[in-house]
Amino acid sequence: MKNEIEKRNVIVGIAAILATVPATLATAQDLDLSDITLPPGFAIDVYAADVPNARSLALGDDGVVYVSTRRDGRIFALLPQDDGSQAILTIDEDLKVPNGIAYRDGDLYVAETTRVLRYPGVRARLLDPPAPEVIGEPLPGESHHGWRYIAFGPDGKLYITIGAPCNVCDREGFGLIVRQNADGSGREVFAEGVRNSVGLAWHPRTGDLWFTDNGRDMLGDDLPPGELNRAPAAGLHFGFPYCHAGEIPDPEFGQHRNCSEFAAPAQKLGPHVAPLGLRFYTGSMFPAEYQGQIFIAEHGSWNRSKKIGYRLSLVRLHNGRPASYETFAEGWLQNEQASGRPVDVLVLDDGSMLVSDDKAGRIYRISYSTLRTEGLL
Asked: Which of 38, 54, 184, 273 has most Cβ atoms within 10 angstroms of its Cβ?
């Protein structure tokens, strides 16, 4: 009974907040997305505009979506309104590269380059956000690949990525995925040899960790592939800086180790597509064939003579292993000009999927209806 009363109080509080926020904060339905192509039955619209440098996404209670940034230094909360638009509130500002964001038990967690912050009881204080608490030991301070990604695993621990402070180098304490308790205690290394992961997700049935990794630069247009990796247990090494994509010895460090010593990617992705956020689809809106499959936001290449990426990709699994890798949504890249760069994906309670775009400063919503396939919508 107590929990039900608390939930009702939160809903009433959210409604009161919505009543005070001007609807003009999220009037985005007229923005043109005609270049974006999707499979039949799917549609894309703007869920929220004017979200500068929108990066990682976290779903809170009562449909509130929390959005991190990297260059903007702010953390936002998107509050759903009765007309389907979103009011945008600032939770904090003037932060240092607050790329990582996660939500658990009413608290918001944000990772800057050197520390993890917790905003206790944030869901009840969206108009008057709580001051953050620093939890756990400091993180390395190097700015190169210093944008953290964080997420809670099914074990209740907070996982944190620590990218390499270079294009390619061998530095102790970097190229890791670490995990710690929610209070910051008990930090330990979970995986090594991970150059720069900016996306973590767990298989909904097995609980295995899957993550993206960005391959090294300056090996040409087509090498190495990006990576989708699977870590069913702690203690695996994924090759960096000695071996790339499971089979390409590094020109400088490859002589020191053999590729056979390391865990190979579960799926090789496009070269330099910059794979970032990923999610297993667990909703009920999309057709059954998408259930349990992996959506990946590919931010797009910066160092290729012909650009690639700038899209959402889909990795289909069969018996727990990748069976295909295909484009799901594209069109943000036209004639070598990018109108947007997908960063993260998030499945909402209604089964639709959000996509953040740090170039356009928007959040998109992808939905599905059989009526569209029949020409009735």
From this structure: 54
